[in-house]
């Protein structure tokens, strides 16, 4: 399959949010990545339902919601109702992960699990057949513009190997430090969804930056 590009709204200009959403609409972006942080699971606070509603009002691309929060089950229904296409929860935050994934699917959303840089891939073995996507965090979650963790290539390859045995249609997303210098290597390792924040929104030509990522090849 052709890989997908999901620019991260966390790096957008919130003072010109409609402009940036429309830029993504008119680009080769496939999804819009929406990071939700609660200041507890990660050491930062981002945004929630009101901003998702504002983005959804203008977005013509699916919204990829990444919940970096404790007890995400409390808010699954609300995020689905506000327009989430895909909902990602963290393995580390879900003590009853199968139930959480089932709840996401019952709400009509795609279901995804994220793993932090220190979390072994093999912990996903018992859940991977039920997932639409795995998100490999290539930085420690919480802040944008962090340095890419090199071991992430190995983790992506491990997810790919696991998926071939249990879920060949699985999407593998990578988030953190993604730019045109490592896109091809990430795709070669097995990723097929690239989240890019700072490398897109700090670019003088944001549409061209997205196009470059979309045209990258393994």
From TrEMBL:
One of its GO terms (molecular function) is D-ribulose-phosphate 3-epimerase activity. Its EC number is 5.1.3.1. Pathway: Carbohydrate degradation. Keywords: Carbohydrate metabolism, Cobalt, Isomerase, Manganese, Metal-binding, Zinc. Substrate binds at residues 8, 66, 175-177. A divalent metal cation binds at residues 33, 35, 66, 175. NCBIfam families: PRK05581.1-4, rpe. Its cofactor is Mn(2+); Co(2+); Zn(2+); a divalent metal cation. This is Ribulose-phosphate 3-epimerase. It holds the Pfam family Ribul_P_3_epim. The active site is at residues 35, 175. It catalyses: D-ribulose 5-phosphate = D-xylulose 5-phosphate. GO terms for biological process: pentose catabolic process; pentose-phosphate shunt. The lineage of its organism: Bacteria, Pseudomonadati, Bacteroidota, Sphingobacteriia, Sphingobacteriales. Binds 1 divalent metal cation per subunit. GO terms for cellular component: cytoplasm. Catalyzes the reversible epimerization of D-ribulose 5-phosphate to D-xylulose 5-phosphate. Belongs to the ribulose-phosphate 3-epimerase family. The gene is rpe.
């Amino acid at each position: 399959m052709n890989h997908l590009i999901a620019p991260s709204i966390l790096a957008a200009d919130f003072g010109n949010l409609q402009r940036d959403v429309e830029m993504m609409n008119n680009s080769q972006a496939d999804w819009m990545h929406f990071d939700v942080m609660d200041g507890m699971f990660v050491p930062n606070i981002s945004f929630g339902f009101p901003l998702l509603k504002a983005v959804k009002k203008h977005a013509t691309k699916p919204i990829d919601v990444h919940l970096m929060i404790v007890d995400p089950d409390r808010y699954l229904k609300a995020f689905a109702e506000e327009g989430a296409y895909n909902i990602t929860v963290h393995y580390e935050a879900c003590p009853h992960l199968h139930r959480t994934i089932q709840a996401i699917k019952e709400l009509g959303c795609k279901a995804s699990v994220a793993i932090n840089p220190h979390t072994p891939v093999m912990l996903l073995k018992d859940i991977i057949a039920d997932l639409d996507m795995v998100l490999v965090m290539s930085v420690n979650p919480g802040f944008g513009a962090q340095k890419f963790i090199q071991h992430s290539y190995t983790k992506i390859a491990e997810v790919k190997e696991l998926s071939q045995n249990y879920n060949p249609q699985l999407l593998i997303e990578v988030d953190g430090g993604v730019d045109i210098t490592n896109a091809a290597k990430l795709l070669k390792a097995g990723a097929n969804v690239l989240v890019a924040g700072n490398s897109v929104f700090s670019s003088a030509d944001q549409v061209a930056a997205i196009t470059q990522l979309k045209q990258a090849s393994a």
